[in-house]
Amino acid sequence: MMGEPFASDPYVVGKSAPPPEPPHIPAEESLCPVVLHDWVNSEYKHLVVEASPKALTVTPGQFFNLLCPSPDVGELFFRRPQSVYRVNRKRGRIEFLYKCVGRGTRGLSTLQKGDALNMVGPLGVGFRLDPAWRHIVVLGRGVGIATLGPISQLARDNNVGVTAILSARNADFVMADTFFREAGDVVSVLDTDGTSAVDNVEKILAGLIAQKRADAFFTCGSNRLFQLMKRLGKAHNIPGQVAMEQVMACGLGPCYVCVRTFEVDGKKELRRVCIEGPVFDMQEAVGW
């Protein structure tokens, strides 16, 4: 579709008429009213916006490129990629769970109820759920936990069992455990008591494999845990998918800022996380 538009004209949620763009356009710029924006703990915020019909077609693992307000007198020249934490299609809402760490997210944290969030998406390639799978394992740490929310939600809706292993520094940072309990079983592993150590997580995964409760692996947020899942997946012939976290500029593919190395059939190749990911086959991903 050379020469055809990739993204739509801005769509103002609650005010615009249905966009006239042809359905093949994958991304849309939309202005979404903020309906909730609260601190979850000292570092993370939970953001809920009213979303457009196009935005609500987002699939697990896809992301939006957010235009964050500046937190100071300087400008923010690039949007910030943000994976979706939860989709509530009945209420027409999309939720984000993010860590407030840099200028972009500090600016994002200033949005208040009633403000409009400018976002472009849905973008990228998301997770895939095979109908043959009866039980999946999701393993996340930190902000990576949020990325695994939608695939757990989708699995539950398709009567697929879920075991969510949530890794964090301490109990205050085990976020969304209530949400994951709606989808299945939750195992929290912490730095404070040593349960987040790789060897202990390996024992948990080995137990699930022995119980035949690991038809597929999904992970995000920790390179060491990704490497563990990749090794066990290869040893036990368990398919897996990883959502990569990567700095981006355009989020649409042309800039090549988010290129990472992958190994396919014994050969190294470069792929763009924004357009060919952010979800990749676990055995092809090298790490980040």
Characteristic key phrases:
alpha/beta; 7 helices; 16 strands; eight-stranded mixed sheet; about 20% helix; 2 domains; six-stranded mixed sheet; about 290 residues; Rossmann fold; Elongation Factor Tu (Ef-tu), domain 3
Can you offer a commentary on this structure?
This protein is an alpha/beta fold. It folds into 2 domains: 11-123, Translation factors (Elongation Factor Tu (Ef-tu), domain 3), CATH 2.40.30.10; 135-281, Rossmann fold, CATH 3.40.50.80. It has 7 helices and 16 strands. It has helices spanning 103-108, 144-147, 149-157, 177-183, 198-210, 223-236, 273-276, and strands at 11-12, 28-39, 44-50, 63-67, 80-83, 86-88, 93-99, 116-123, 135-141, 161-168, 185-190, 216-220, 240-243, 259-264, 267-272, 279-281. The strands form 3 sheets. Strands 1, 2, 3, 4, 5, 6, 7 and 8 form an 8-stranded mixed sheet that branches. Helix 4 (177-183) links the parallel strand 10 (161-168) and strand 11. The protein is globular, with a radius of gyration of 19 Å. The two termini are 32 Å apart.
Short description:
The chain is of the alpha/beta class and 288 residues long. The chain is built from seven helices and 16 strands. The chain has two domains: 113 residues, Translation factors (Elongation Factor Tu (Ef-tu), domain 3); 147 residues, Nucleotide-binding domain of ferredoxin-NADP reductase (FNR) module (Rossmann fold), CATH 3.40.50.80.
